[in-house]
Design goal:
The chain is an alpha/beta fold and 213 residues long. The chain is 40% helix and 18% strand. It has a 5-stranded mixed sheet with strand order 5-4-1-6-7, with helices on one face. A two-stranded antiparallel sheet has the order 2-3. The longest helix is centred in the first third of the chain and has 26 residues.
């Protein structure tokens, strides 16, 4: 339950400590961590199986966010990793895999970038499967170095920059936003009709043009 509260519901250990104290139960944050650490060994096989199944997904989304891990910090300064010279960043990578209509979410925290973590996941992909679609922003560190994917970059971040710059460059930005609107229009139609918008999606019958199959 402690693990579910922390990692499933985002309930910090110190907050749970105060809650338990109000109920007359002493449960320090350090003790909670030890409980989670020791219990994690028993569910490690399930985690490995989730990685294996996620590797078989048709579409994988990945991104990074910064995280603070005390083991990597010395007097408020992040210690450089001797195995990765020059790297001081610490990240949590989120990977979501869509497979047969279901989603698998994986999280990895440590020195590795999103591209390195998704490389480790896709290394477990069956060789007979076709290349997956990878959705991510255009940062080079999000890409798997040694594996082939069908790359699909997010437009959302790029479009936001044009929206923010529109006040200074109205004509130029309006042109780009109009072009991008042609991409977002089919997506809006699909979402509005409740149809699938995944890689195997088909155009709804009432939206097909004469040239559509």
């Amino acid at each position: 339950m402690v693990a579910l509260m922390k990692y499933g519901s985002g309930f910090p250990f110190h907050r749970l400590e105060r809650l338990e104290a109000n109920l007359g139960i002493p449960l320090p944050a350090s003790t909670q961590w030890e409980m989670v650490r020791d219990g994690g060994e028993h569910i490690q096989p399930a985690f490995e199986e989730l990685i294996r199944q996620a590797a078989s997904g048709e579409v994988l989304y990945n991104d990074d966010t910064s995280v603070k891990i005390l083991e990597f910090v010395d007097h408020d300064c992040v210690v450089e990793d001797p195995q990765l010279p020059g790297r001081t960043g610490v990240f949590t990578t989120g990977i979501v895999s869509r497979r047969e209509g279901r989603k698998i979410a994986l999280f990895f925290s440590g020195r590795k970038h999103a591209g390195e973590n998704i490389t480790d996941v896709l290394a477990k992909r069956a060789s007979e499967l076709p290349r997956p679609i990878q959705m991510c922003d255009a940062l080079s560190r999000n890409l798997p170095r040694e594996l082939e994917v069908i790359l699909a970059n997010y437009l959302t971040h790029g479009r936001r920059y044009f929206v923010e710059a529109a006040a200074n460059f109205p004509e130029e930005c309006r042109y780009i936003l109009k072009i991008l609107g042609k991409v977002y229009h089919p997506d809006a139609i699909a979402r509005g009709t409740g149809h699938d918008i995944g890689p195997t999606a088909k155009t709804p019958p009432d939206r097909k043009r004469p040239t559509d199959g």
